[in-house]
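Quarterly update, task 2.4: TZP-bound model.
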Amino acid sequence: MVAHSNIDYSLYLVTSRDTGILSPSNDYFHILEQALIGGVTIVQIREKDADTGEFIEVARKSKEICDRYKVPILINDRIDIALAIGAHGVHVGQKDMPVTTARRLLPKNSIVGIGSVWGTRTKKLTNPIVGVRGVGSILRILDGTDIKAVAIGGVKRANLLRTLHGAVSPTNHPLDGVAIVSDIMGAEDPRARCEALSTTLREFRDAFSSSSTSAFRPSTLTDNWSTDSIKHGVGELMQVLRASNPLVHQITNSVVTTQSANITLAVGGSPIMATTPEEMEDLAKYPGALLINIGTLTTENLDGMFKAGFFANVNKKPLVCDPVGVGATQFRKGTVSELLSTWQASVIKGNAGELAALAGSSEVDAKGVDSAGSFEDPIKFVKNLARRERCVIVLTGVTDYVSDGDRVVLLKNGHEMLGRITGSGCMLGSCIASFCGAAASVGEDLAVGRLVRGDMFLGAIAGILVLTIASERAVARNDVKGPGTFLPALIDEAAALKPEDIIDAAKIELA
Ligand SMILES: Cc1ncc(COP(=O)(O)OP(=O)(O)O)c(N)n1
Ligand SMILES: Cc1ncsc1CCOP(=O)(O)O
C-alpha cells in the first residue's frame, strides 16, 4: 500500500532477481531498463532473500534507472530501505485484512494488490486463488473510495485481456492496473513484452470507456435499432455464414453429437467435435467459434473445456456456453462456476431452470435438464445476468429472450415439436455458435480492446431465428408425421432457409 496521488498504476512491475525466473540471457538491471522503455508505469522492488546491504544496493541502483524514466519506485516490506533510498513509497502486506476493514483504514490514494488472481509459481500462496470474479467482488466494495486496485498473480500477456475484462465489478468498477513479476522479468525481450502489455491495457481502457454496460454491445445495431434492421442483419449473416464456412469447434454431449454436427453443416458451418486437451491450442487458431456444452459432463472432458475456452479468448474467438442441467447437481454448478471464472463466454444460453441456477436465483427450479416454471420478469432477469456475466444471455422458452445487458429482444418463433425431440436446445447452441463464428469473420472493427471479434448479439439472434423458423416450416410439411420425421425435416429446412424467409417469418419484439 502506498499513499501517493497521480500515479499511473496500469503496468506495475514487481521485480525479482530469482534465477529461476529471469531469462538466462538477461541481467536484472538490463531487464528493468528495457521494461521501463517498454511502458512499465510503476516499479516495486521485491527482495525476499537479500540481506539489508544487498537490498539497499539493488534498490539504490534500481531507483537511478527508474528516475531516468520518471517512473515511481516502491519497496516491498522495508520502510527503512524505502526511506534510505528516497523511494516513492512502500508496499506492506496486510495479511488477510478484510477489504471492508481496509476500506475504512487505508489513507487517501492507497493502493491494494488483489491476488493471487490466477495460479502462480512466483510466490507460495497461503490463500486460495481469488479468480477474476473474486477480484470484481472486491472492486465493488471499493466503489466510492479513492483506493486504487491492481490484480497480481499469474497475470501474463496471454490472459491480460481476460483478466481486465473479467475483473470489472457488476457495478462497472475496473482495475487500475495489473502487477506482474515473471511474465516481464522472465521475458526473452522484456521491452517488447511490456509494449505488448501496454497496448492491451490501453486498448481495453479505450474500449471500456466507450462502451456502457456491456463490452459486447453490438455496434451494427446501435444506431439503427429496429425489428427490420435485425431481420436484415440476420439475412446478411446467413449469407456470410454460408460463404465463410467457419470451423465450429464443439465440445458437446454424447447424446446429441451427430445431430449437432448435422445442423451445423445445414446452416453453413464446418463442425469439428474434438475433445482432447492437446488439440485445443491448434484448433483455436482457425477462424470460427467454440461451443462448450456440459450435457454429459465427465472429469475426463473437463480439461479440454478449460483449455479450449482459454485459447478461444486468446484468439478472440466467440465462445458459446450451454450449461445444460447446471442446476441438477453440485458438481455441474461448481464446474460451470469454475469454467466461467477461467474463461469469458461470449454467449451463455440456457432455459429458465439453468439460468436461474447460474444466477443463484431460487425463482425457477431445475428438473434435470428441464426447468420447472418461468421468471416473473424475464426481461429484467436476462438484462441483469448479461451485465453480471458481461456477455450475451439467451433465455430459451416459448418466447426466447436475448440481452447484451443494454437491450432485450424477444423472439417468438418456434414450434412445440422442438420440445418433443431430444437435443433441440443443444442444436440451438450449435446454430448460435455457427452464426457467432460468421459474425466474427466480419467483426474485426469490434475486436480492439475486447475479448471477441464481431457482433455476438446479432449472432445469437440469428441462430435462434434460423432454427425456430426452420422448425415451423418442418412441421408444416406433409411428410412430417411426428418427432421421428421432424428431426431430419428440421435439418433439411434449416439448410434450405433463405434470408427472405427470415424477413417474412421472424416474430421479433424489442423490449
Ligand atoms: C502489488 C502487490 N500486491 C500484492 C503483493 C503481495 O504482498 P504480500 O502479501 O505482502 O507478500 P510479499 O510480496 O511480501 O511476499 C505485492 N508484493 N505487490
Ligand atoms: C508477490 C505476489 N503476491 C501475490 S501473487 C505474487 C506473485 C506474482 O508473480 P507472477 O506475476 O510471476 O505470477
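Highlight for this quarter: The pocket of TZP (ligand 2) is lined by residues 14, 115-116, 120, 122-123, 152-155, 180-183 (CB under 6 Å).
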